[in-house]
Structures are given as structure tokens and as C-alpha cells.
Amino acid sequence: MNLSETADLARAITLVESTRSEDRTRAQELLQSVMSETGNAVRIGISGVPGVGKSTFIEAFGTMLCDAGHRVAVLAVDPSSARTGGSILGDKSRMAELAQNANAYIRPSPSAKTLGGVGRRTRESMLLCEAAGFDVVIVETVGVGQSETVVADMVDFFCVLMLPGAGDELQGIKRGILELADAVVVNKADGDLLGKARIARSEYASDIHYLTPRYPGWTPPAMLASALERTGLDELWTVIEEHRKTIDLDALRTDQLEHWWRSQMTEEVQRQFAENADVRADWERIRADVRAGKITPAQGAANLLQHLG
Predict the structure, then answer these.
(1) N or C: which end of the chain has fewer CB within 10 A?
(2) CB-count exposure of residue 73 (10 Å: 0-12, 13-18, 19+)
């Protein structure tokens, strides 16, 4: 495949996202062949509460970067239905301007019930985009409140968008989010909301001051931005560049590879367990016993695990 061609890149990502067993080997061979061409992009994760305007913000930010000569790939993860597994995959329509930019590539993927609001193959998709020559890769998550560590562990810079004057309903999740953030950006800082946005920025700056930094020497800034008026975007890119100069990027990337390896190990063990013939033979019987209260869930799990020797 020639990953510099958009159609080939799309096919490559579809291959690594595939759950078909016959595609698994081909996907790993492809990834192995391009590993030497990866690692040079700026990896940015963007999360935020529902309604904060993530897609609009990413479109404005990505367009600014493209205009400055960068090639930007956006891995936009859409929420999957908990009942059907279906996904709207509407990010291209929400980022119509960026989608038409010759220096941009937008790939919507279903979250498929994955923690952290990321696709099950987001890491691999990110590497394929890097191999295709994109020097900025942005991962947009579904929202906040569910294992943002997953996102933070695969990007260089984790940006959290906040609403002006969101109120006390966010207090329960705020601390956990701020502990992961490399920058907090109060979006929609324009018009009648500008005053509230300034107050919110001061509050977040105060909160950050009392947290232990993720990286020595780096204090996450609290910033203002308006995707509508396209203000604060240059300042965010400057912060990202300063962040890359401050942290030990090589050590971070090494840790990311280990996190990826551990997650792959967990996934492979789960897959082999689910495909084990003895496990499949006993699964429904033990499931029925657990549902009927005949055995405890722990005992049911132990009964199945004994098949792994």
C-alpha cells in the first residue's frame, strides 16, 4: 500500500480496525513494515465535556495548522450505541471545512464500547497516519469521565476543553481530568460568555496549582479560546511546542510503547480465552448457574479459567 494516497490510508486503517481473524496477521505485518516511518508527528489528545465544542474547536485548530504548512490527521471517535454497537460517524460533516483541506485527513471510528472514548485501534491508526506523512495527529475523544488515562497514555499532549461557567455539576470529575491535562482550555470565550470564561480560567489555574504535575518542570496552563472567533489557537500551539521542549519525549514514547504492549497482551489473552473450545462449551452452562445464583460470579470465573491450565 502507498499510504501517501488517501484511499490506501483509509484501507490500511480499515484493515487494522478489522476484527476478522484473517485480517489480524496482515494488519500486524503492515504495521511492522511502517514502524520505522513513525514517531515524528506531534500527537495531541483533545477531550472535553459534552457540548464544549470539540469538533468545532478541532476544525478551527486543524485549519490553522494546515494554513501554517502542517499536515493534520484527525482520528475522531464517535460514540457507539451500547445496545446495537452502531455509530453515527458524523465528524466529517461537523468538520466540513477541514475535511476539504488538501493537507488534512479525518477518520471517524466507532468507540465500540472502548474505555476512554477511543477506538480499539486508535494507536495503530495514529501510526499509519504518521507513516503517511502527517506531522500532527489529533485524537478526539467521545467525552470525559471514563478513563481518560487511555487517551493520555497514547499522545504527547493531552488538552482538556472546558465550558465557561459550567457549574458545580463538573466538580466531581474535574480533579481527575486536571491531573491528566497538559493544558486546560476554556472554549467559547466570546460574546456574553467571555466574562464567565475568564472567571473559569482563574478557577482552573488555581486548581492546577495544587496538583502534582505529570512531568517535572511543566505546569499545565489554563487558557482561553474561541473556536468561533478563532482566538487562542496560536497560543495553544505555542504551548504545545514549549511542552515538547520541556518533557523527555523519548522516555514518554518508550512508556507509550510499553502501554501499547500491555494492552495488546490483555486483548490477546482475552481473545484466546474466548476462542478456547472448552471455554465455549461450558460458557452458557456456567453463565446460567451464575444468573440463577447457584454459584458466585467468582466461582463461575474460576470454573472457566481452569480450562486455560
Answers:
(1) C
(2) buried
Q: Which of 277, 12, 248 is nearest to 126 (CA)?
A: 12
| Residue 108: closest CA among 78, 144, 136, 82 | 78
Rounded to an integer, the average pLDDT of 24-33 is 90
Nearest one of 178, 182, 230, 228 to 200, comparing CA atoms? 178
User: Are residues 219 and 135 located together in one domain of the fold?
Assistant: yes
Compute the mean pLDDT over every residue in the chain, rounded to the nearest whole number. Answer: 84
Contact 138, 275 (CB under 8 A): no
Grid coordinates standing for 222? 489554563
**In total, how many domains does the chain have?**
2
Separation of CA 174 from chain center: 18
254-286 per-position pLDDT tens digit: 998 888 888 888 888 888 888 888 888 999 999
- 240: exposed, middle or buried (C-beta count within 10 Å: 0-12, 13-18, 19+)? middle
pLDDT, residue 122, reads 87
Domain that holds residue 272: 262-308
Give the three cell numbers for residue 153: 497514555
**C-alpha cell belonging to residue 221:** 496552563
- The reply to whether 231 and 275 lie within a common domain is no
Last residue of a domain, one of 247, 271, 289: 247
What's the pTM value of the predicted model, to 2 decimals? 0.85
Residue pointed to by grid coordinates 451500547: 82
